[in-house]
Amino acid sequence: MRTPLTPFSCCNGTVHGVRWGKGPRLLAFHGFLDNSFSFKLLAEHLPGYEIWAIDLPGHGQSADLPKIEGSFIPGWLIPLGRVLDDLDWSSYTIVGHSLGAILSQLLAAVDSRISHLISLDGLGPLASTTAENLDRFQRLYDSRQRSFIRRQYTTYDDLIRSRYRGVFPLSEQAARAMMGNAVNFNGSTWSHRYDRQLRNESIWRLDESEIQAWLSRVSAPVDLALFGSQHWPGYREVFEQRLAALQNVRVKYIDGSHHLHMEDPALVAQWITTVLNAKNALSDIH
Question: Global pTM?
Fold first, then answer.
């Protein structure tokens, strides 16, 4: 049986999302260029929980980003803090995937209302040295007149098939589930719905010492699931340092693709349920 979804909005209608189910509430942050529907299949396998999944700014049905050149990861945090203010829960368990995991980790470093993080395939943002940042800024400056064209697709199926390719390809099941919330149709052609500014380069990245300093301020417990072993080759030392920076972290390795929560939602939901049951059992003891 399909779990019915209910749309919601906050922050004066600039942030939209959907929620599924009944029970203890979980707030969900999706990955880069994904949207709230990336949790649709997972929600079907978490019937005992109420999943509130937002469209991050610039994604899905939420408003576009402020008109700036380039992005800066900490710049997302104040708008997300306003989301927490508007929802006004006493505490937050956040399920974050990829970019959503990274943002929830940095947000937890500065917001004590976040009581638990369930992070799917993401641990801290990409880092850059000062020289790399300057080189990237130069490219951004030199391309300041650049515009990002919204690619048009003749049919809806063509639009879906475009998500089969890319750095993290999706299966047809995953693509169709997610694209139900992030498409435009102008009467003759289809296009993906997201702010084209997201395609621009980062204006500046944190360096590795700064990232680890942020992670060290996360007091909430972090349950981190890593999907497959292909994402950290060559970065093992950095990964271990980031883990060590966290005050309270448990890691689960699960074989699969970057979007495993959409490709095998039952498996990921089983792990999440185990994590939440353990948390509830510990709360009962105390």
Answer: 0.94
